[in-house]
Write a structure and sequence with these properties.
This protein is an alpha/beta fold and 248 residues long. It has nine helices and ten strands. A six-stranded mixed sheet has the order 6-7-8-3-9-10, sandwiched between helices. It starts with a strand and ends in a 5-residue tail after the last helix.
Length: 248
């Protein structure tokens, strides 16, 4: 069964068609890169999948279930998570406070308002275990604003993993990172369980092709090409429009 499937997905903004009848599927555990030049519709496509934007037409299925009209939080409860092109963290919270919020969101105590999350030892244990798993335990008491940009990217990825997602959408996870930071984030992504299906938007082709099984190329809101990494590298339209004719 496909983890995620979209059929004829379209989004119009007035007279502008940002996503034009996109159809694709991702099998459970697959890693799929979505590439294309600026303005190709990649982030809009992610916003449609997650429910931030309603589609103008088309259908979205999550493990065979039609979620086209589901709210953002209902999709998240089913196991859909994402990161953003620009980090979306609370700057004045510490790393462990951020992790606590993330694990609380998938726990029944999220509906309890009269006690702080720190009053629940199992939440603190889960938060610390998550930070330890991903090498951030030594930064647990540091405010987000004092982290390097690369560390903030890592924290955002950890928070997305707190709810044990089945499908994870990563919107340019290495954007703005140094080579060393890019290597750290790439290692984190590579270590993720194959129980998680990953869709990855990434401008760095070396990073994208290193992390995924298959590639879809968007151009002007439409699918220009789909295939293996080798097929995409050799596609003359892709080389001309996006990768450049001199790309090996």
């Amino acid at each position: 069964m496909n983890a995620l499937a979209v059929e004829g997905l379209t989004k119009d903004f007035g007279g502008l068609r940002a996503v034009d009848r996109v159809t694709l599927s991702a099998s459970a555990g697959e890693r799929l890169a979505i590439i294309g030049p600026n303005g190709a519709g990649k982030t809009t496509f992610f916003n449609l999948i997650t429910g931030i934007l309603p589609p103008s037409s088309g259908r979205i299925s999550f493990f065979g279930r039609d979620v086209t009209r589901f709210s953002i939080h209902r999709r998240a409860q089913l196991g859909l998570a994402r990161t953003f092109q620009i980090t979306a963290l609370f700057p004045h919270l510490t790393v462990v406070e951020s992790a606590l919020l993330a694990v609380q969101a998938s726990d029944s105590v999220r509906f309890t308002l009269h006690r702080p999350a720190t009053a629940y030892p199992h939440l603190m244990d889960r938060a610390d275990a998550l930070l330890q798993q991903w090498g951030l335990l030594d930064r647990r008491n540091v405010q987000t604003l004092h982290l390097s940009y690369g560390e903030q990217r890592q924290v955002e990825l950890v928070l997305a993993l707190a709810g044990t997602p089945k499908v994870l959408l990563l919107d340019e996870p290495t954007a703005g990172l140094s080579p060393a930071e890019t290597a750290s984030v790439s290692t984190m992504i590579r270590r993720l369980s194959r129980e998680i299906t990953i869709l990855l938007i990434e401008h760095d082709m070396d990073v994208a092709f290193d992390l995924v099984d298959r590639v879809m190329v968007l151009f002007q809101g439409r699918i220009l090409a789909q295939g293996t990494k080798e097929e995409i590298r050799k596609n003359p339209e892709v080389m001309e429009i996006y990768l450049g004719t001199d790309h090996a």
